[in-house]
Amino acid sequence: MRWMWRNRYLLVIVIVFAILMSVVIKHTGIERERFSKVEQVISTIFRPVENVLTDATEAVKNSFDGMVSLLNTHKENKVLEERMQDYEALSHKLKEVQLENNELRQMAELKANNENFDLMVAEVINRSPSNWQGSFIINKGIKNGIEKDMTVVSLGMELVGRVFSVGDRYAVVLPLIDQYSRVGGRIEETRETGVIRGVASNTKIQCIMERLPRSAKVKKGQTVTTSGLGIFPKGIIIGEVSSVKNGLQGISTEAMIKPYADFNTLEKVFLIKRVLKEIPEIPSPEEMSESIGGQ
To answer: Which residue spans within the chain are E strands per DSSP?
Structure first.
């Protein structure tokens, strides 16, 4: 054992040499029918070692090939994931474009079919997140022919508010539901008029109609429009009566109004630049009865 330890390097050299010889014998003997006796002895002695080394080499090669395959799979998955993200982004963008095209087509049809007003489309570009019922900003201004106190309506032609102030390329809109807003309103079914203002609330979007006579025949569900008394054109739909109560000191009637315009999803609006033709009035039930009776 001591002799082997002292001559370990020489022993390693001999083993390596013998293995190499075995490999050479194996590969050069392919073209020969028989090995020599020396070749047979060397091959027989070192074949087990050769087999172990061959198996080890194959194992290392297989492990390396597996790692390369795993890395390639990871890269392919990453590429596929990036392509999926690109596809989802493109699909989302396409849906937005389709919605915008539908909206523009709808606005164009509304504008073309409207015979009463000269309308201009504007986009809501800013509003206060802390005061959703307060003023908001649109992307049209003096350069677009916008003036102070122009009436603002929704795409469904429901009253939104009025232009409060104007810049060159923007305008500030005071909405109907703001507590400082004042609008002359009328109950369509009874022709009774009052003043509508916004009511501050964290839970409801609503207005109150004040200065109605005590004898007013106001009922829940009745339609409210602009009266034409003031800066707003006559006959624009505001909303409907949601409840009725006695006014201050019982000398008047007050009605809570639910606006038809959806202020939570307001993105685009119409501005009424000028009135082309007055909106025809809807006759009240009494007037319809008198008209039928007179016939």
So the answer is: 117-127, 136-138, 151-153, 159-166, 171-175, 183-187, 193-198, 207-213, 223-226, 237-246, 252-259, 268-275
Identify the weakest region by mean pLDDT among 77-81, 111-115, 237-241: 111-115
Q: Which of 188, 209, 211 is nearest to 198 (CA)?
A: 209
Residue 289, domain member (yes or no): no
Helix or strand or coil: residue 8?
A: helix
Both 127 and 269 in one domain: the answer is: yes
**Residues 19, 71: one domain?**
yes
Q: How many Cα neighbours within 13 Å face the side chain of 206?
A: 15
Whole-number Å distance between alpha carbons of 176 and 238 = 9
Judgement on whether residues 88 and 177 belong to the same structural domain of the protein: no
| Six token digits for residue 105 | 């087509």
Sign of the torsion angle spanned by Cα atoms 98, 129, 177, 181 = negative
Calpha distance 145→270 (Å, rounded) = 13
204: CATH: 2.40.10.350
> Range of 28's domain?
1-113
Kindly tell me if the per-residue pLDDT of 159 is higher than 80: yes
Q: To the nearest whole percent, how much of the chain has pLDDT over 70?
A: 66
Q: What is the pLDDT of residues 161-205, one digit of tens each?
A: 999 999 999 999 999 999 999 999 999 999 999 999 998 777 788
pLDDT at 248: 75
pTM of this structure:
0.62
Query: Based on the structure, what is the number of domains in the chain?
Result: 2
Q: Which has more confidence, 177 or 132?
A: 177
CA–CA dist 40, 22 (Å, integer) = 9
The CA distance from 177 to 258, in Å, is: 10
